[in-house]
């Protein structure tokens, strides 16, 4: 299917702009303007099409987590990291993207927890996020926002929006209203199945031994112009351990990864899974079969960690639609939606002073 046939008209030019964006001052202007007039399309429980704007998501995140000026609407709590990607060149078989040529590309990134409250305490069950900008700060960089989940919870814009509102904690319990959540799951059985899959995954000790996945599908394009559906993941090279029985302090996940990186660089294998024609590139709630071909493309190394501050990952929008030549978005409806909401979040936090980082490492990035 031609990409233009499935992307709403207001997104065609914005998506192309993001592919060629250059990091720095020029990029800020693009992000500030990215969500002006944008409309996200989702389908309700009965299949009727609804229009959702980035502002609707801004309002929903704030209704659930409160208003926290200067912080991201989602994944508000985080810490900055940097390092490099050592490519072995194997990925060049399926993509012309610069990052997959043999050699080393610098990167910056950010570990995070989901939610709009930057003061949330770390928990064993909370999903863990890792955003990377590989090739930063070059024009051909590749950005990806990953989670340590086997699948994503939603496969539609409407589903994500409805789940966000249904997850609002009830005062006194800190948990969603069970009646509201049950009603949501009845209307979105795909999320109920995805959440069951997620619950089967055993938690690990922290960020360092978590597997991170891009979850959404993309296309790699090689020198011959062949388009290959792919998903990617980071497999930890550190031995996987169970989570601590008695975590120490509200920031224990972050405190541990700060200590880990300062002790020795952390490494993950960057794996690219090749999709087959029967694999649905539009539905992130469904895992592709385990027997799909996987290409080990190299090693992601994180060797520096720092408190979020001006000039490091604090100011990077990990928009999944910032793609280099050789990588293209799939027809997954969540991709343009994520891009729109990320831009809205960036626009609202840019230039806001006084947003103190919730994770202190004692130094800023080198």
From TrEMBL:
Coiled coil: none annotated. Residues 25-365 form the Catalase core domain. Keywords: Heme, Iron, Membrane, Metal-binding, Oxidoreductase, Peroxidase, Transmembrane, Transmembrane helix. Its cofactor is heme. The keyword Membrane applies. It comes from the Bacteria. The keyword Iron applies. The chain crosses the membrane at residues 21-41. SMART domains: Catalase. Its EC number is 1.11.1.-. InterPro entries: Catalase, Catalase_core, Catalase_sf, Catalase_SrpA-type_pred. It is an enzyme of class 1 (oxidoreductase). One of its GO terms (molecular function) is peroxidase activity. Pfam families: Catalase. Has an organic peroxide-dependent peroxidase activity. Belongs to the catalase family. PANTHER family: CATALASE. This is Catalase-related peroxidase.
